[in-house]
Amino acid sequence: MLAAIRGEPTARIPWAPRMDLWCIANRARGTLPRQFQGLDTAGIADVLGVACHAIRADFTIPRDPWDFALRGLGIENHPDAPYRVELRGLRMEFSHEGDTYRTRIWTSAGVVSFSLVHTAAMKRDGISIPFVEEFAIRSAADFGAVAEIFEHLEVIPTPEAYAAFGRRIGARGIAVANGGVGASPMHGIFHDLVSQEEFFYLYADEREALSRLAQRMEPFIGRILELALGCQAEVVYWGANYDQNLTWPAFFAAEITPWLQRASDRAHAAGKFLLTHTDGENQKLLPLYPSCRFDVAESVCTQPMTSSTLQEVRQGMGPRITVWGGIPSVALLQDQMTDRVFEKYLDEVFANLGTGERLILGVSDNVPPDADLKRLDRIKERIEAFGPVRPAAAESSGRPA
Q1: Rounded CA separation 58/195 (Å)
Q2: CATH no. for residue 372?
Q3: Total domain count for the chain?
């Protein structure tokens, strides 16, 4: 997988489907096959004979409810992460009762509250992280209090936690260190702090105040980046969930691109690769990605779930970005693709791979709960038949070797 990211020859195209949603859903339904019971994602990968998808953390691991106390601020503490976030100097109350998580924080500018929900039905669908039900920001009046909270957040390095994660994954895959889901402060506000509909109004009507909030969040976001890059990881995760209709091109260029460039440059200076989670409809964002200077576009979703083929995405990303993904989750569902249609789909995919360089095949975004696992084996067979990857021209990227 690292050789693929470097653009070097490999014995085969790496194949790393993401299995945590499938595992969580079938565990909750009581339908997890016997050979997978009691296994984490690394063990599941061993049984399947595939590379382990180990990006950010293993989300199949049972969690302490306190890990989600700050989730309404876009902050999730996980025992696999290279840092932990704690609130200092402000009063906070947190409760977890049944399906609901509630947090209240007192500031000099007022009380901020948010709530999360994680139902049994959500778990049966494979959802591992509670959804925000009540957002921290409901109007511009909340900006000052939320900014004060971010100024009281302490980011504590936990390199030993990431090191244990890396040892657990071992040679099965790349243990990608968790950075931030929000690629920038403004992207984080959009992604986690306010409802999407309300954000669009605020971005149009309260841009100056919203930008001041983002500026006050910058030291915290910068500290997250610093600690993510400071651990032993070879690849660091930074930013996620882009879509041309939500993170539209002008917004992406103004609010996300500069931070991806900053994170990429710092990662390369530290001898690391930067990965970003580019799921969603990317067609109109493709022209912007090469200038962001990241190394891996992960969770790439393609036709028929989006408008672009894998070939079009790879061409749009340019010659230096490794694409990870390319198999849409619906391709694994019998009720979405018959066996005949599935084989025809694979024919088209593999016929247009060229040399196969800078490619890690995976499922976008996750292997679904009702997936036909035989299709994972079929993709593996097609990879073996494709043979070794011999890049057409070994081009030095100036990035980590």
Answers
A1: 27
A2: 3.20.20.210
A3: 1
